[in-house]
Amino acid sequence: MWPIDPDTPTTDVARGLLGAVLHRRLDDGTLLSGRIVETEAYLGLEDAACHSFHGRRTPRVASMYLRAGHAYVYRIYGLHACLNVVTGDEARPEAVLLRALAPLAGVERMRALRGRPDADARLCAGPARLTQALAIGLELDGHPLHAPPLWLEAGAPLEDTRVEVGPRVGLSARVASRDWPLRFRVRGDASVSRGGAR
């Protein structure tokens, strides 16, 4: 899975990232880590839900045109950051959104960052919760995901029976690609975000 080959289909990367570990080293040395349990693939030029649809190119989406293995961080609703793993290159600007983590290390600090001292396994269940819990902001947009302060570590492969595949969530009915089966999650994991998979 790592390093990510830009020729690997983004759906394969999204599936392969399940079980991998995301690490975040804070300025004071604290390590925050979580196992990836949910992802969504965004397929670039032909995917109406993707920020690079039809070759759209703005300062906001510039990192989508980097080589596979970089972070694409953007703000949604003007409030929350979302973390994506770039999977293609300048000719194929695609990415995988990290939707949920199962917390592993630094859980108390994650709770403090989220302002949820009593939070449970759902501490990172959703893309905005994930970035808030790991203090991931726009300053990490374009960061190569093989080195601190934000990096990925390969995990044990998951059998197909442990993976659910379904449509992405939170997309408008007007988006032609809304129902494409591009959401991947670990079956039965308590840390996945809400919403069913078909």
Can you describe what's shown?
The protein is of the alpha+beta class and 198 residues long. It has a single domain (10-185), classed as Roll (3-methyladenine DNA Glycosylase, Chain A). Helices cover 11% and strands 28% of the residues. The chain contains 3 helices and 9 strands; from the N terminus they run H-E-E-E-E-E-H-H-E-E-E-E. It has helices at residues 10-16, 107-114, 127-133, and strands at residues 21-25, 31-42, 71-76, 80-86, 95-105, 146-147, 150-153, 163-166, 183-186. A hairpin with an 8-residue loop joins strand 4 (80-86) and strand 5 (95-105). The model has no long low-confidence stretch (mean pLDDT 91).
- Global morphology: globular
- CATH topology call: 3-methyladenine DNA Glycosylase, Chain A
Number of strands: 9
* CATH architectural designation: Roll
Largest sheet: 9 strands, antiparallel
Structural class comes to: alpha+beta
Poorly predicted residue ranges:
none
Tell me, rounded to a whole number, the average pLDDT.
91
Rg from alpha-carbon coordinates: 15 Å
Question: Can you write the helix and strand succession as a string?
Answer: HEEEEEHHEEEE
Which helices and strands appear, and what pairs or packs with what?
Layout lengths: L9 H7 L4 E5 L5 E12 L28 E6 L3 E7 L8 E11 L1 H8 L12 H7 L12 E2 L2 E4 L9 E4 L16 E4 L12
Antiparallel strand pairs: 1-2, 1-7, 2-5, 2-9, 3-4, 4-5, 6-7, 8-9
